[in-house]
Amino acid sequence: MKNIVLGVSGGIAAYKAVALARLLVEAGHEVHVVPTADALRFVGQPTWEAISRNPVTTSVHDDVPEVRHVALGQNADLVVVAPATANTLARMTAGLADDLLGTTLLATRAPVLVAPAMHTEMWQHPATQDNVAILRSRGVAVVGPESGRLTGNDSGPGRMSEPADIFERVQEMLADARAADVGGAAAPATGVVDTAKRSRGDLVGVRVLVTAGGTREPIDPVRFLGNRSSGRQGVAIAAAAADRGAEVVLLAANIDGAVLEAVSSDQAVRLVTVGTTAELDSTVHAAARGARVVIMAAAVADYRVAEVADQKIRKEDSPGAAPTLTLVENPDILVSLVRDRQDDQVIVGFAAETVDDEDELLERGRRKLARKGVDLLAVNAVGWSEGFESETNEVRVLDAEGDVVVATAGTKRAVADALLDAVVAELNLPESALGD
Ligand SMILES: Cc1cc2nc3c(=O)[nH]c(=O)nc-3n(C[C@H](O)[C@H](O)[C@H](O)COP(=O)(O)O)c2cc1C
């Protein structure tokens, strides 16, 4: 059970926040709803009190003996603002404290998640975009907005994420915070995650290129050779880097739209889609120019089909004889990235191995490290049920000397943050680059 403050501001999507409150209560959390005065014009106090089973007020002048204006924030394990109106985002950026939500947000040291919701024009206005960028750089996490039907007949980017998605993000953030607190399963073995540093936006101004997913090599117009990479780990890295203030380019190879939703409306993540290894190869080198960090999480096909058939290969064309596919080796993208590396660029590779034995896994990782010449190598065991497609991962990160600098297991988001902690250490940024 965690103490969650649910801030609600005055947009139509306030009605969807009722469903979010219910999900949080049903998950066993203690929920304190803090609406703005305008939010109460959309959904009234009795609804919030009935759903949250706690008293609800907007004013700093209620329950004064309990010092409620700071106590709610101080006691919170997480503050989520959904919907976050353009006005409330601006107030957060300015640090205004003219109502209970404002004081709570200033008093809290807990993770903060906002779910913006507004018309497309308001969302895309430079004022709103600047406000969101500033909030991100302070470590505020942002979910959505999605593109879709808005109030009235409009549609476009600005629709609040679905309550279930916001709820899922809340649960992930709580799991991350728990891991950091106790040095538990999702925390790096090398030490407790420095959440204070992370919340300062330790990648502000750093350009990060991430590749994710799995390349596919065509056999004929309808078939391909592929792999089971879902892209979840790479997408989680892109999202985590953006949350820490980085400008991110995500090269996504054949990733399901539902997986990409974690970043698709994220203004700090530029999404480029690729299909084959050749497409990834030609795109990644251009994108790597100007990137301070390159993280190659994509599962790249080692081989492609020598001759791709123009027409669908049909059984009738060679009755009784199965066709033979001749494969040729693809270029080694990681090696060429290391060869063309810019000064002080940090390059991170991934090695997916189908071995259970820890020592053997690390040994294979060290051999790959020596072959590729990367700065960090994330090694994980994959198999029928691990690594690929799953929501969790277990990773060892080796530095250039082959030493394990991170050993972590947990959600792919938690693994992403542990990996980025190692990247930040490798970047050796001056204190001034860590934001304020
Ligand atoms: C019907 C209606 C719907 C609105 N929907 C939104 C919205 O989705 N997002 C938004 O930023 N503002 C919206 N507004 C404007 C906000 O209510 C207004 O900016 C208000 O000052 C927000 O105050 P608050 O952020 O303190 O809750 C809407 C206003 C009306 C009348």
Q: Could you walk me through the main structural features you see in this protein, from its secondary elements to its overall organization?
A:
The chain has 436 residues and is of the alpha/beta class. The protein folds into two domains: 3-182, 3-Layer(aba) Sandwich (Rossmann fold); 195-431, CoaB-like (Rossmann fold, 3-Layer(aba) Sandwich). It is built from 15 helices and 19 strands. Strands 12-11-8-13-16-17-18-19 form an eight-stranded mixed beta sheet, with helices on both faces. Strands 2-1-3-4-5 form a five-stranded parallel beta sheet, with helices on both faces. Strands 6-7 form a two-stranded antiparallel sheet. β11, α11 (257-264) and β12 form a beta-alpha-beta unit. Residues 183-200 and 432-436 have low confidence and may be disordered. It binds flavin mononucleotide. The site of flavin mononucleotide has 16 residues, from α4.
Please, what is the average pLDDT? Answer: 87
Question: What spatial form do the alpha-carbon principal axes imply?
Answer: elongated
Could you state the oligomeric state of the chains shown? single chain
Number of strands: 19
Gyration radius, to the nearest Å? 24 Å
Classified by CATH, the class of the largest domain is Alpha Beta
- The CATH architecture assignment of the largest domain turns out to be 3-Layer(aba) Sandwich
**Low-pLDDT windows of residues:** 183-200, 432-436
* Largest sheet geometry: 8 strands, mixed
Percent of residues in helices: 25-40%
Q: What is the domain tally? A: 2
Major beta sheet, strand line-up: 12-11-8-13-16-17-18-19
Portion in strands = 15-25%
Let me know the CATH homologous superfamily of the largest domain: CoaB-like
Which ligands are bound? flavin mononucleotide
| Count of discrete alpha- or pi-helical segments spanning 4 or more residues | 15
| CATH fold type of the largest domain | Rossmann fold
Distance between the termini: 32 Å
- Structural class determined from secondary elements: alpha/beta
Region (Phosphopantothenoylcysteine decarboxylase): 1-207
EC number: 4.1.1.36, 6.3.2.5
InterPro entries: CoaB-like_sf, CoaBC, DNA/pantothenate-metab_flavo_C, Flavin_trans-like, Flavoprotein
Pathway: Cofactor biosynthesis; coenzyme A biosynthesis; CoA from (R)-pantothenate: step 2/5; Cofactor biosynthesis; coenzyme A biosynthesis; CoA from (R)-pantothenate: step 3/5
